[in-house]
Amino acid sequence: MTTDYDVLVIGGGAGGLSAAGIATNLGAKTAMIERDALGGDCTWTGCVPSKTLLKAATVVHQARTASKYGLTDQSVDVDFGGVMDHVRQVRQEVYEEADAPEIFEDLDIDVREGDAHFIDAHTVGVERADGSTEQVTGRYVIVAAGARPLVPPIEGLGEVDVLTNESLFELEEQPERLAIVGGGPIGTEMAQAFARLGTEVVVLDMADRILSNDDAELAATLRETLVDEGVEYVLGAQVERVSQADGTITISAGEQGPVQADALLLATGRTANVDGLHLDAAGIDYTRQGITVDDRCRTSQGHIYAVGDVTGRYQFTHMSNHMAKVAVTNALLKVPSTIDMDHVPWVTYTEPELAHVGAHAADLDEQGVSYETYRFPYDQLDRAITESETTGEIKVHAKSLTGKILGASVLGERAGELITAFTIAMRNGVTLRNIGDTIHPYPAYGEGVRRVADQWYVQKQSPTFTKVLQSVFGYRGPVLKYGPDEIV
């Protein structure tokens, strides 16, 4: 059939931008439809503003705790309005440098502004803000419509001024007391940021721990750090209702007692943007979790693909980019490509950072997989010692015989960078032995990756082997034996 475009992309966030860019580089006539500004959640309400705010809060914290580095603690007056202006300025700079429409139009991508919805399996309607409409057709369609904050069914929410990540970075005045519902990555990051800026912060979560998808031991250590910085936690709390009177928000959480705050941030997850797409008109299967796709990102319609948050799968910017590459490769090159679900890293960008890739110990135990856990603490990592950033640990689950890495978690400074090394190793079959035999620069945080690999070597060396060497070569030193939890 004749269509207006080879590839029609719905959504201009991380997944949509990647999909459109790859498609046009492969010679496909491409259009991208976005109802708001290009860049999506990552640029406007997620990664970019949150990390900018975290950096500002870190600068304040370092000044106030300068004695940690042999300096004098400083009293810092926080200009909250100035900080938020800075956050929005950085956000705008990122947009102008990487996401502005003219950047993609220069690549011959047709950028259309408006709400998109399916009319049939190849036809998409676009409704513009001025009320005008048009229809465009695509040989292939890639849906990258993203997600929005999930608002749980809590009594009274409709009568309370509630913040989500979509409104948080528009604040002009700093709340004296901030309550955060949700102890996941967003809630944890913003708890630290606002506490360091001087807000009283309390985090409520129905679980008995924070960051439930991360290593429990390391997450507990991170929570202790945040508690030391003044964050209060109310865990195992079922939020029943909220109310607001005279500027004070009251959160009822059963036996945990009422919590009062001046502002309430919902960090309770995200829900896929499937409403309004008229997916039924195109015959696309979906659930409340998102559009149903196979491992090649194909929907129930073979020429329509979906990527990123709208699928309800891992809702990370880097996963959206990965899925966009998989979708376009399958659609245009006809080369079978599948989503790599086994090597998905994620990071919570607190200080210290908490990162993970692969399997947890509980996963391996449930599957009956034999493994050993190798550790290396930050308080024995020279670079961490020189920078007084000794909170944390590198933890790796691997096969004892071969050193094959099954999963890794890192709590500590630059954990996001260190987890990348383990991700590359796992995807490419690099073992702990290979890592231990590789020269790492000293003193760098990356040396910790080699040091944890060295622990595999240590555990492989048995007293029997040492005695054999002594017998053959006449060596006269001690026969050392290390316990399973001993760090060398």
TrEMBL record:
Question: What cofactor does this one take?
Answer: FAD
The residues the record assigns to binding NAD(+) are 182-189, 269
The molecular function terms in GO held by this entry are: flavin adenine dinucleotide binding; NAD(P)H dehydrogenase (quinone) activity
Q: How is the cofactor bound?
A: Binds 1 FAD per subunit.
Q: Which cysteines are joined by disulfide bonds?
A: 42-47
Q: Which superkingdom?
A: Bacteria
**Keyword annotations:** FAD, Flavoprotein, NAD, Nucleotide-binding, Oxidoreductase, Pyruvate
- Give start and end of each FAD/NAD(P)-binding domain: 5-322
InterPro entries reported for this sequence: FAD/NAD-bd_sf (IPR036188), FAD/NAD-binding_dom (IPR023753), FAD/NAD-linked_Rdtase_dimer_sf (IPR016156), Pyr_nuc-diS_OxRdtase (IPR001100), Pyr_nucl-diS_OxRdtase_dimer (IPR004099)
Residues the entry annotates as binding FAD: 51, 309
Q: Which parts of the sequence belong to the Pyridine nucleotide-disulphide oxidoreductase dimerisation domain? A: 344-451
What family classification does the UniProt entry report for this protein? Belongs to the class-I pyridine nucleotide-disulfide oxidoreductase family.
Protein name per its UniProtKB record = Pyruvate/2-oxoglutarate dehydrogenase complex dihydrolipoamide dehydrogenase (E3) component
> Which source organism does the UniProt entry give?
Salinibacter ruber
Taxonomic path: Bacteria, Pseudomonadati, Rhodothermota, Rhodothermia, Rhodothermales
